[in-house]
UniProtKB/TrEMBL annotation:
Keywords: DNA-binding, Phosphoprotein, Transcription, Transcription regulation, Two-component regulatory system. Pfam families: Response_reg (PF00072), Trans_reg_C (PF00486). The keyword Methyltransferase does not apply. This protein is a positive regulator for the phosphate regulon. Transcription of this operon is positively regulated by PhoB and PhoR when phosphate is limited. This is Phosphate regulon transcriptional regulatory protein PhoB. It comes from Marinobacter salinus. PROSITE patterns: OMPR_PHOB (PS51755), RESPONSE_REGULATORY (PS50110).
Amino acid sequence: MTRTVLIIEDNPGIGELVRMQVTDLGMQAILIDRGDSGLERFRQDGVDLVILDLMLPGMDGLAVCREIRSSPGYVPVLMLTAKSTELDRVLGLEMGADDYLTKPFSVAELAARIKALFRRVDALSAREETEAEAGLLEVDGLRIDPVRRRVFVDEREVDLTAREFDLLWHFARHRGRVFSRAQLLDSVWGYNHEGYEHTVNTHINRLRNKIEADPAEPRYVQTVWGVGYRFMD
């Protein structure tokens, strides 16, 4: 099945360059030059990857990325940015981008990043099929359904983003095991950019706020000081 790539880029030259590269990879490319219009197209479904500029008219790339990550299911996001400061890259990753490219970039590097993201998607799909066979996981009032990707705490359903669910499921499948931030980036995000471990902290704080009765005294996702995090043993 042909993959569909949504390109949201307002620079005509860069947009056309990306569109041509996506087409050369044998994928269908949809090019839109506004953030709000791009988000509307994304919500029509049928998109397998979003290549997203940071600075866009109508709605900026960070806002678009945040809306994509709050939607059901998981679609990888490759963020393009003309800015090269660490803060911009971190903001993109914390909003849920899977990877980023700083302009100017080479066509070869763009192709490599696209292929890498789809390898991660394929690996994730295979892993989810295996995990689904295990059925429900229940522990101390927490119930996780990996097939429907639903989470309940004391019979109350909790609305998690795709990344929050992946993080919780990873912890729950390895109860008692301690993971460093770098290990979590590798296992859950699929990359490990040095210096971005605080992205893990942000997601764990959001996850705790949703599943813990008292996020300051977490029952499920516990901190191991100086090392990382673990799920209750």
